[in-house]
Design a protein that fits this description.
The protein is an alpha+beta fold. The protein has 17 helices and 8 strands. It folds into 3 domains: about 5-100, no CATH class; about 115-205; about 235-405, hpI Integrase, Chain A (Orthogonal Bundle), CATH 1.10.443.10.
Length: about 400
């Protein structure tokens, strides 16, 4: 064992860690002794050289005699080792003697804890961006956007950067929601999704030993019921019958919006759909078979008369592999609002309303929700029911009538 001066300074730690010990050993080299420390724990042993040498006369029976400088240095080394052991034990981690031995000169047993902004970047990179993470480009961009929004919240709230992970508290869930509503014009449900994102981020931080507790562990989002907006058949009829200049932006936007009402394609999937996605079944019926960019779920979409007419109309104009040349989403939404006012529609639609219109029509006509889910390419049927397809009274009444008239 080390001499009594070293033992006294760490007596408390040794009492707490009776199964872990450090002893001083020496290896003779010609005229000197190379000193090393032996770490022991539950029958395992690891030797760590200290880079200290002394004369044979200074090293007797595992103790240093007459050299206070070496005694002080060894004392600091042993303290470092015991501190590392206690940190592992406090965090409930495996006692790894090699890992403890690597901290002999004062290095931290754990990687230095990053600040909040750097930790968010590390989370996004590890989970969404690193090779092997099979997320769509849309999902990657969305999560980078979430991270940027939350970094902006923290910067605005604390009025500085360099924020520690421990500075975020449970009460900040409401502050994040308020920030997203007031500064990002987010709806309530979208705002709560940012708190849920932070909850997942803090789980990642715990797994990396950056923090001990998740401040959002008990957060349970309260979702507001959102009325599903869609175009009625009367609205669509008005849209179809609009007299627009041939080959104009108005005509193209109107036609592309209608195509998505007929097929349920999202904006990004409409941009990417090509002739390679058109298939024909054994009865000669054409349909789209396309993996959704967002979920990679395969959508199967029958092509009826109206969407086929639009494909033919633009095939000769575009003369390319893609079915359509699609304007930007901003251009689409801006033009749609102008067209909606001209046609006197019941709502001012965004392009995304086309998917909800398609879902609601299909459910209205008695198509099973599981089939609608497959058409839209949703990975979860609850998404189809809660956010896309509005169930009106018609399918309910029709189902009851069929049941009771048997």
């Amino acid at each position: 064992m080390l001499n009594s001066k070293i033992q006294t300074s760490i007596q408390t730690e040794k009492q707490k860690a009776s199964s872990f010990s450090v002893s001083l050993r020496g290896r003779p080299n010609n005229t000197t002794i190379s000193l090393y420390l032996r770490l022991s724990y539950k029958g395992e042993k690891v030797d760590k050289f200290t880079e200290i040498k002394c004369s044979p006369s200074e090293f007797k029976n595992g103790k240093i005699k007459g050299n206070n400088e070496i005694i002080t240095l060894l004392k600091s080394y042993e303290n470092n080792l015991y501190k590392s052991y206690m940190k592992l034990r406090e965090k409930g981690q495996t006692i790894d003697l090699q890992r403890i031995a690597s901290t002999i000169f004062g290095d931290s047993i754990f990687e230095e804890t990053p600040k909040l902004f750097d930790a968010i970047d590390k989370y996004i990179k590890a989970i969404y961006l690193d090779a092997g993470n099979e997320f769509s480009e849309i999902t990657k961009v969305k999560n980078q956007r979430y991270g940027n929004h939350l970094k902006q919240f923290a910067k605005d709230f604390f009025k500085r950067e360099g924020i520690d992970l421990t500075e975020i508290k449970p009460i900040h869930d409401n502050e994040i929601i308020k920030f997203m509503k007031h500064h990002r014009q987010a709806g309530h449900n979208h705002a709560t999704m940012h708190v849920q994102w932070m909850k997942r981020f803090y789980d990642f931080a715990i797994g990396n030993d950056w923090i001990l507790k998740n401040p959002f562990l008990n957060f349970k989002p309260k979702h507001e019921k959102v009325e599903i907006k869609y175009l009625t058949k009367e609205d669509i009829s008005k849209f179809e019958n609009l007299k627009l200049s041939k080959n104009s932006t108005y005509e193209r936007v109107r036609d592309l919006f209608l195509f998505s009402c007929y097929t349920g394609l999202s904006y990004m999937d409409l941009k990417n759909v090509s002739f390679q996605h058109i298939k024909t079944d054994i009865n000669g019926v054409k349909y789209l078979e396309i993996p959704r960019l967002k979920t990679t779920v395969l959508s199967i979409i029958p092509l009826l008369e109206k969407p086929l007419q639009l494909i033919e109309k633009y095939h000769f104009v575009e003369n390319q592999d893609k079915l359509f040349c699609v304007p930007t989403n901003q251009c689409m939404n801006r033009t749609l609002k102008e067209l909606a006012e001209i046609a006197d529609l019941s709502i001012l639609p965004t392009f995304h309303i086309s998917r909800k219109t398609c879902a609601t029509w299909l459910i209205d006509e008695g198509v099973p929700v599981a089939i609608v889910q497959r058409v839209l390419g949703h990975s979860n049927i609850s998404t189809t029911l809660n956010h896309y397809g509005k169930i009106n009274e018609k399918p309910i009444i029709d189902s009851f009538s069929q049941f009771f008239n048997k």
